[in-house]
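Narrative progress, year one. The postdoctoral researcher (J.K.) led the effort to move from monomer predictions toward full complexes, under supervision of the PI. The following entry was the first complex the group processed end to end, covering 494 residues in total.
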Amino acid sequence: MPRYRLDIEYDGTPYAGWQRQAGQHSVQAALEQAILGFSSETVTLRGAGRTDSGVHATGQVAHVDLARDWPDDTVRDAVNAHLKLASETVAVLAAAKVTDAFDARFSATGRHYLYRILNRRAPPALEKGRVWWTPGRLDAGAMHEAAQQLLGRHDFTTFRSAQCQATSPLRTLERLDVARSGDLIEVRTSARSFLHNQVRSMVGTLKRVGEGAWTAADVKAALDARDRAACGPMAPPDGLYLVKVDY
Amino acid sequence: MPRYRLDIEYDGTPYAGWQRQAGQHSVQAALEQAILGFSSETVTLRGAGRTDSGVHATGQVAHVDLARDWPDDTVRDAVNAHLKLASETVAVLAAAKVTDAFDARFSATGRHYLYRILNRRAPPALEKGRVWWTPGRLDAGAMHEAAQQLLGRHDFTTFRSAQCQATSPLRTLERLDVARSGDLIEVRTSARSFLHNQVRSMVGTLKRVGEGAWTAADVKAALDARDRAACGPMAPPDGLYLVKVDY
């Protein structure tokens, strides 16, 4: 059975998240349904990142095994045609045959997320659901400086959902950059893998720094506490995008 | 009566356009309704650009006269609060008191539009309604070169809607740049004023150049024909944004 790598974009707003769940609509189910429509096969996709409800992607990666050896572009176009028929806000950017050694989740060596904050008095008209709107002025420079406290290998229990199923809270954070461009503050972060809700927990904590309520030392103390209760209020899913997966 | 300049952003998708029309929902009516909700006054806004149905703005400008002398920020925040209550996709970015000599439409000395084309095989998942999706590869360099044929003062009858109410078809086009950035082709254009449907007509014609059906000389011939029938198929409203107005 040929294996295909799918590069996927989605607006996560209408979905219960990436992962298939009984009684709820997910990005994974939307794609599996589209593949069923095109190839008449009931398949299971495996994705690189199990994004939460409302989280978006411009570079999600998944793999799927199909019975027939279709041309790559046929897979991409046919799945997109079926996604469109079902009015899904999901698109396959590329489909490419890969070897059986490729596993979208377990072969991934890096994951890159972008978090977008719209920092202005007026609410978003064009980007509703695509940004976190924070009307109070944030100091992006202070947020960036504090963010550097979190780089490296740490126990990220503070920044981990109580529902996180990872066996270890240890992760190595490779990048956590905060930069302002006009009214937009972009947080870019990279790691081999992240804990459940880690990015949104870190961004919510950095927002406290941006508004002057916390210092960089407070962020370090929160990390060292290894206590979920020490985390700032979690940022909403709206601003979060899975942008790239490394293999 | 103090006059206020309003800088406005909107997602034009749900509206019949900027201008108030009987029996249809417009951006102007949404704002007038929000002002009524906040100040109990029935007002008439005048906007710099009468954008069509489905056209967006990040920098529309309008003026309005109010009975009371409110602080600028109160006007901005109160109008936004009422827009939100009504679930409008419109936001006031800034409100500022101006003299009676300021007229959003007649004082404008320049208008700047952006047209965004998503040029890739996969349809947009995140930017549906915000871009013109063209799956066939377009040559942005050829489009830019052909666009330069349209710069300067010309009779733009070819690129003007049959419904255009301007007394003269003469306009001076100051900028028409086409540039690719990844899968996105951005067309940026500036003039003191544009004819009805002029930007979408020019972009639709340039797309024909991008796909190799027309040459730069064909664009020049279409302009010289001064005939609406010589225009390429008009680009959809989805990709068009009024980004800035000069005074």
